[in-house]
């Protein structure tokens, strides 16, 4: 008989809890080019994804990915080194799986970062945007299919996917650190193509301030599970808005790396205040 997701999660978490006995309360998922944040962590235990029962396995050879259990600013955190994207061929349920594992381990708050294209005409490359809401219609919902009540309700409320209190805290922190931040709506897409000119225009017209290929499915699973979410984008390109500009993955990664120190200081101060 095929086991339920809940049963799989129980097996996954009991395996992890045998390796690491402490309960993390904060989960961290980092975006492309933003992984250096893990150098801020006092690592206590690392577990390779490939060793964890039922965990999705990384498709990129040599980048197997791991869960990092650590102490940071007096808090116990679990961070994903390597995340799963729908465009890599994972199902939306697989993309959501690590978030559900975090919940089962005791995580209450999830912090997420990503690299995103700026569709808001006022955004520049290197800007930061606190995500206040998202549009998920251009991706595939991870809650499709039979609902398992142990994981959350059939029809989750989505009136506040991004916790207002955490947004307010992050704004205060950014102000104190003199780091300018925008607040806006993230439009989730499947990728892996960057958008066409017409698509960037469409996303802007429907209220998207930024567009990206991650985050939305993870946030949906986290909200379904009743966790608090904070998420932030680094604007790595401004779409192909102008006559002759193009977008490369290289420039996305470079822009993310350049902006990373700003994002890292906001995240670490936020961890401190949770
Ligand atoms: N579109 C989609 N995803 C992205 C982009 C973009 O312009 N930049 C970084 N991730």
Structure notes:
- With 274 residues, the protein is α/β, with parallel strands linked by helices.
- The chain has a single domain (4-273), classed as Nucleoside phosphorylase domain (Rossmann fold).
- Helix content is 31%, strand content 23%.
- The protein has 6 helices and 9 strands.
- Helix 1 (5-19) crosses helix 2 and helix 2 (92-105) packs across helix 5.
- It is globular and about 55 Å long.
- Bound molecules: hypoxanthine (HPA).
- Hypoxanthine is lined by residues 115-117, 189, 191, 194-195, 211-213, 236-237, 239, 247, 252.
List the helices and strands and how they pair.
Elements: H1 5-19, E1 26-29, E2 42-48, E3 66-72, E4 75-81, H2 92-105, E5 109-118, E6 128-135, H3 164-176, E7 182-188, H4 197-205, E8 210-212, H5 216-224, E9 228-237, H6 249-273
Helix pairs in contact: 1-2, 2-5, 3-6
The protein binds hypoxanthine.
Hypoxanthine binds at residues 115-117, 189, 191, 194-195, 211-213, 236-237, 239, 247, 252.
Summarize this, please?
With 274 residues, the chain is α/β, with parallel strands linked by helices. It has six helices and nine strands; from the N terminus they run H-E-E-E-E-H-E-E-H-E-H-E-H-E-H.
Strand neighbour order, sheet with most strands: 5-8-7-6-9
Strand content: 15-25%
Overall pLDDT confidence: 93
Shape by Cα distribution: globular
In CATH, what is the homologous superfamily? Answer: Nucleoside phosphorylase domain
Instruction: Give the tally of β-strands.
Output: 9
Class, according to the CATH hierarchy?
Answer: Alpha Beta
CATH third-level topology: Rossmann fold
**Which stretches are poorly predicted, pLDDT < 50 over at least 5 residues?**
none
């Amino acid at each position: 008989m095929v086991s339920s997701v809940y049963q799989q999660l129980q097996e996954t978490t009991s395996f992890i809890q045998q390796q690491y006995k402490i309960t993390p309360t904060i989960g961290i998922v980092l975006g492309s080019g933003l992984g250096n944040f893990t150098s801020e962590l006092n690592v206590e235990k690392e577990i390779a994804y490939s060793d964890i029962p039922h965990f999705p396995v990384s498709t990129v050879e040599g980048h197997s990915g791991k869960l990092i259990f650590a102490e940071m600013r007096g808090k116990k955190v679990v961070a994903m080194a390597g995340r799963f994207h729908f465009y890599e061929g994972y199902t939306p349920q697989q993309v959501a799986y690590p978030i559900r594992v975090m919940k089962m381990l005791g995580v209450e708050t999830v912090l997420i970062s990503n690299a995103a294209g700026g569709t808001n005409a006022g955004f520049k490359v290197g800007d930061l945007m606190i995500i206040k809401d998202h549009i998920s219609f251009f991706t595939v919902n991870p809650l499709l299919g039979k609902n398992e009540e142990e994981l959350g309700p059939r029809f989750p409320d989505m009136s506040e996917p991004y916790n207002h209190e955490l947004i307010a805290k992050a704004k205060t922190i950014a102000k104190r650190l003199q780091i300018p931040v925008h607040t806006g709506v993230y439009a989730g897409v499947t990728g892996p193509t960057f958008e066409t000119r017409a698509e960037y225009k469409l996303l802007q017209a429907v209220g998207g301030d930024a567009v990206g290929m991650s985050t939305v499915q993870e946030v949906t699973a986290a909200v379904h599970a009743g966790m608090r979410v904070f998420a932030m984008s680094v604007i790595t390109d401004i779409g192909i808005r102008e006559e002759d500009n193009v977008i490369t993955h290289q420039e996305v990664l470079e822009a993310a790396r350049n902006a990373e120190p700003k994002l890292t200081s906001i995240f670490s101060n936020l961890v401190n205040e949770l």
